[in-house]
Design brief:
Elements: H1 6-32, H2 43-65, E1 70-72, E2 75-77, H3 80-90, H4 92-109, H5 116-126, H6 132-147, H7 151-181
Antiparallel strand pairs: 1-2
Helix pairs in contact: 1-2, 1-6, 1-7, 2-4, 4-5
């Protein structure tokens, strides 16, 4: 797959939005100690939409990545062995950690009466999805290179990127702020 084609751009954009989705959902689940859709009637739908379909999409992204050529010193590398070696060396660990987290969360979701320790372990393991931050940065750079923007468009792209990063940091800080205020070890809290 040629990285300069629109198909590669579309896959990268979908991948970025899926990563952003999990960057929003995981801190909420971690902070509030519950899954986003926790009601019985929505359980199957939530597992399907929030866990199974993303795993299938991440597997599709892995398939695309191990078939996507890359540029090295200005030349397009299309040798499958070199592409696979590069993927295994630079990206495989991060992709498989995020998929393992999603698989583990499906297993935990199926347990009826979860103990507090299982919930804590599940929440801590869910934070391992943030290893995708490196992949996120790579995808944003690939999109930026593909678009080859003029100065005003580049500035708009950077502004949107800055806005996203600011909102992401604020989201994380708000979740931390809520956790501090809702400390269950004390009976009195300010929330």
């Amino acid at each position: 797959i040629d990285p300069a084609k629109k198909f590669a751009l579309a896959i990268n954009i979908i991948h970025i939005f899926l990563i952003i989705f999990f960057f929003i959902i995981i801190p909420i689940e971690f902070t509030f100690g519950t899954e986003v859709f926790d009601q019985e009637s929505q359980f199957i739908l939530s597992i399907l939409l929030l866990k199974v379909i993303p795993i299938l999409l991440f597997l599709l992204f892995i398939f695309v990545d191990i078939h996507k050529a890359y540029y090295k010193r200005g030349k397009l590398v299309i040798d499958r062995n070199k592409i696979l070696k590069r993927y295994l060396k630079n990206e495989a660990f991060y992709d498989f950690i995020s998929i393992l987290f999603l698989l583990f969360s499906i297993c935990i979701s199926g347990i009826e009466n979860k103990s507090a320790s299982i919930k804590i372990i599940s929440n801590i393991l869910s934070l391992f999805f943030f290893v995708k931050l490196k992949k996120f940065k790579k995808l944003v750079n690939e999109i930026e290179e593909y678009l080859y923007l003029d100065e005003s468009s580049y500035n708009m792209f950077e502004l949107i990127n800055l806005l996203y990063r600011t909102i992401f940091v604020l989201h994380i800080l708000a979740c931390i702020w809520y956790m501090i205020g809702n400390d269950e070890s004390k009976n009195i809290n300010w929330l």
